[in-house]
Amino acid sequence: SFVMLSRPKTGEDQGDCYGFHLIYSGNHCETAEVSSFGKLRLLTGINPREFSWKLEPGAQFQAPEAFMTYAPDGWGGMSRRMHAFIREHIVRGYWKNRPRPVLLNSWEACYFDISESRLLKLAKAGKDAGIELFVVDDGWFGKRDDDCSGLGDWFVNEQKLRGGLGTLVQKVKALGMRFGIWFEPEMISEKSDLYRTHSDWVIRSPLYDPIRSRHQLVLDLSNPAVCEYLIQSVGRILEPGNISYVKWDMNRHLTDLGSVYLGRENQMELSHRYVLGLYHVMETLTERFPQVLFESCSSGGGRFDAGMLYYMPQTWTSDNTDAICRLKIQHGTSFLFPPVTMGAHVSACPNHQVGRTTPLATRFAVAAAGNLGYELDLKNLSKEEKEEVKAQIKEYKKRRRTVQFGTYYRLANPFCENQSAWNIVSEDGMEVIFTHVQILARAAYRMPVIRLRGLDPDAIYTDCATGQEYGGDELMYAGIRIPRIRQDFSSTTIVFRKS
Question: Which of 137, 138, 153, 249 is catalytic?
């Protein structure tokens, strides 16, 4: 639901640019029309297709709000205005201005094959590396041994976690780590106790068999009873107060619109009532558990919007964890959303989604442009890799505030160049983090020169690793020459300190 309009020849630093974003997590529509007089008109709102609303006498209907900005200084100026607005006026609550913890997620290390002993070994490896938050992903509940069953049955599978969830949590906390957990509350498996009891709670057309995506269906959140069930189910797990983080997933979207709960004349209201029900669930849970860090996830970043960020202050940017794919994903995401809203993980190699082999340093350089996490089996790394991860986490913690709350500048575009680059300036302007990623090595080419942005032209900036000094005007106008590196997917990161 993000639209950007700019004049011809607009770029990162110059030209008129407008940005628009609808604060809504449902089916939306944007149209741009140019009149015969050359006037442009942009419309954004609820998608009118398959939508109508019966407004009773004396009742009100509240349409979703939108926000927009104008920037005379190009796409970058537009993005920075959007970032500041989202950080200040959309994200709220306990985590609004707090640094986000470095986490270890169990998914790519364990998938559904979890047990207390296996998880604790992984958590111990994470603690040794400096991880602050251990997250148990899918597979801990119901009869959940694969993605065909169990969704909706939000009770602990004590055959896997024999001491119960509370015992595992306490053992993880005894290591000195916070504990997080995965849910997919909006979904239901047909192989579940919930479906056998409440098959009428599913969104589906009465005229044909429903489409199944990832072997699951969607619960009808227009029904208050369904919303109450989710509030009680999730709340029961969070109630002891020892869970610090929730990853809230949604691995498929609404199809086959039909509701047993709604009457015939209200069926076209379903998609919007679903969003209202979801917001009610989230409002209730976030008020009840204000210090839990909720992270939204919808097949990765499929529901990355300001409506969800109002309740969940960060979003899992993509299920594709490959660092080179993430260059484009995070570059595009940065046009609207600030780094503090983007979850980004260092994952296994070869990558589980695309099979690419990428240096550990580059996987870290890309993930360190957002809220850092790891999603691989730390136990199976070599001794040298474990030491490298430990050093990475130590370095990220030192510059975390700059990454998460600093001002972000795009410097090179991976969509049209063989590279990606960005720099982030801290809130006080005293620290600058510059990162460059070379995608493919080439035999002969002109070495790239990257010009930084957002610096004080009259100040001196010192390379924290080498002690070499540069003028701010030098870094912005002459730039940094990236050395020739004979390796695909190589990265360069430099931290500067303003003197």
Answer: 249
